Protein 1
Amino acid sequence: MLRKNGGRNQLRANLIFIAIGIVLFLVSNRVDELRVYQGATVAVYVVAISSIILLTGYSGQISLGHGALMAVGGYAAVLSRNDWHAPVWLSFVVAVLAAALFGAILGVAAGRLSGPYLAGTTLALAVGLPSLANQFSVLGGEQGLNYDVGQPPLSLGQDFTQYHWYFWIAGLAALVMTWLVHNVLGSRYGRNWRAARSNPTAAALAGIHIGRSKILAFTISAGIAGLAGALLAMTLSLVTPSAFPLALSFAIVTGAVLAGVTLLTGSIVGAVVLVAIPELTDALATHLGGSERVTANLPGLMMSALLIVSVLFFPNGPRLFRR
């Protein structure tokens, strides 16, 4: 009976992912260029937030440096595309593998750290790694490297713009990755992560290797973040150190908190909020007089306020997505 119910739930989840994909692609042909670009950015954030949900929500590890892992993926995708002339899909695979390898190395240290020590280590990574790119000419320095994924196929029509092409690629990548993460979290590995997070001692007595479990979670999470970095580089058409600032890492964590940390379906809410904040702050700054100081500080203030409100009043995420 349990297997039968599990099969039904899996089939329902697969049908939901397919339906979401069809709706998104149909809607993309009926909105303007700005909304299509914002939709692609939402897809990028969905992937990035999913990596935090897997790492923090299920494994219990806190990372404040996932923006740096996104940078690893972004640079790996661009270098494989420019130097090896790899197809776009292969550059994404390279981004995932490169970030996962980097995450595995970092995960060895993460397996020995917890709480504020792990958060501090990843925070230092987020501060130092993007700036390190300025020291190597092969990475383009401060100017960065261009990332050209090519023109959309002519079969899609003359009205199918480059931003629509970005949205289709990012949206499909987000759907596939979210589906994969959903299956991983529902597997034995996801159950082991939850057990180790809830009660490490009991999990160890049950035969779960806590250290290996943490390293695996960090590796998979880093690979997902690497894909998000490659998608971000695609939407920007280039990769630079300034594209992966410390604020990006904080934004991803904020989006995960808005999603409920353990709710994969809530990642859409967190991503939409992150994309909407700049537009809301611009409108509010204009209403307040449009001073340079207000425009510069208002997004961070609003992000911090949302994070505090979410932790205080919605710690388990949006009610709509709770199980």
Protein 2
Amino acid sequence: MIAADGTTRMTDKEIIALYRSGEKDRAFASLVESYGERLYWHLRRFTNSHEDADDLLQECFMKIWTSLPDFREESRLYTWAYRIATNEALNHLRKNRWLAALQRENLDAVMEQRIDDDPSFDGNELQRELMKAINRLPAKQKLVFNLRYFDELSYEDIAEITGTSVGALKASYHFAYNKIKEELEKKF
């Protein structure tokens, strides 16, 4: 498989074949090379933090790796990996909401402040407000919007990742899109 940057990456089947043939180090390296950056940005859009996304990415690869012997190939490896990453991100957000409630903080405000304080953010004001609007979406709409808009996944792939029907995903994306559009129209 040829990646967007022109490099050749292994397919899911090749990675699994390497793993099952005992070349586990090569299989793991190929897994990280194939999905590391994509999963990082998926997690980063949930956390608005490089450190949290990086920590979650490591947790994801540990879970993927330890669960790989049980992978039955009923889904594709990349959608399975995205499902694990999505679950890790949602669990992280639930935990942070609970901690924020204990500390009487507004997690949404904290997450928005992360966008404003992020030194690696190089976007303009419109992009910053887009990220804030996405951040204010309910978790399911945020997930669907991110997977469709940023990761450019098909509704079928998102259905495989989330266990949701294509029709429901299209509705979630439509609602998310309209909420974001409405918020940005108020600002600009």
Protein 3
Amino acid sequence: MNPIGAAIVALVIGIAIGALLTWAALRMRRSEQTPTFDVSEPVVPFGVAEVLGVLPSAGVVVGPHDEVLEATAAARTLGLVRGSRITLPELLQLVRTVRREGDVRTVDLQISRGARIASTYLAARVAPLDESLILVLADDHTAARRIEETRRDFVANISHELKTPIGAISLLAEAVEDAADDSAAVRKFASRMGIESARLTDLVSQIIDLSRLQADDPLANPDVVNIDEVLSDAVDRRRMDAERNQITLTVAGVEGTRVLGSARQLGVAVGNLVENAIVYSDPGARVVVAAHVQARSDDDYVEITVSDNGIGIPPAELDRIFERFYRVDYARSRANGGTGLGLAIVKHIAAIHGGDVSVWSQVGQGSTFTIKIPAHLHEAAPTLPEPMTAASPQPPPDQLTHEPQGISQ
């Protein structure tokens, strides 16, 4: 190659190398000036998910952009989390406040689930887990809240109910003192004092019964209860009241039914229903107490029905009749010494026997209350049936001896 050609080639190579070096220098300078971002996903610290899984509280771990990184099943069940977001605005605002200020906060929350559904009450505690993660722990206080409301209502109601007979006795005592010279007036006021004293005694007795029921579990050490005896005893105790009100009492249904539980408690429940049927029936009415059996795959259910053709219950009252101290006809109940606790006691006895109580009623046609409880007899040791003699034949266990609810006026 001649000297001129070699010089030209060297010049081109030098220009190319210079351009490459210049481009590399500019690229390096730009990379130094351009900020870098950490786009890695936030990570929940090791062991946090396992700890949340064993805590009784509902737990949520929230990331730097309000996204839910970890949530327990309880948190989703309570409605704190949906998808990857917190659903409650108050809780989300508290999370942002804790992230900004770095201190622990607590808040009481009420979750409304609709007009006809009871609200859920939560106590939430929000704390920073690290520089970017927020931990939310929530405890469901709904049951405790309802128990406290029930206790508060019960104390208010019982104070009012006790005040009425006590006030009446006090006034009657003053009247007796003022009418000391009038023997007829003294006898009249003394009679009224006896009525109010009896009402007060009944009220205190039912309060004691209710308190005793709440501390007693009839299925812990159950007895085999003969329902025939329960119905017969309950009717016999109210027989005089029924005759005084010209009401016919009848025991019918399937004979030989048995359940596991407490004969005393079931007797109280049936007795309360019979007493109510008498109180809310007019002279000439009929009250039928009966037992029936419903077979199920796992157990037999025994239904105890108390039916009357009395005044009936308005539809608007049916949802409230099992509330403590609630009376459908206040004047009639007070006139007959009713305390308003009878049906509440029936409901509780049915519940602690593993069953429930329901009511059918129509105004002017009467009512039928049904206590339905599982027999639980599969849990008891089998017993050999006694041989039947020709002198005392018994109907088969499933043979009805009456029409269950066909009561006509």
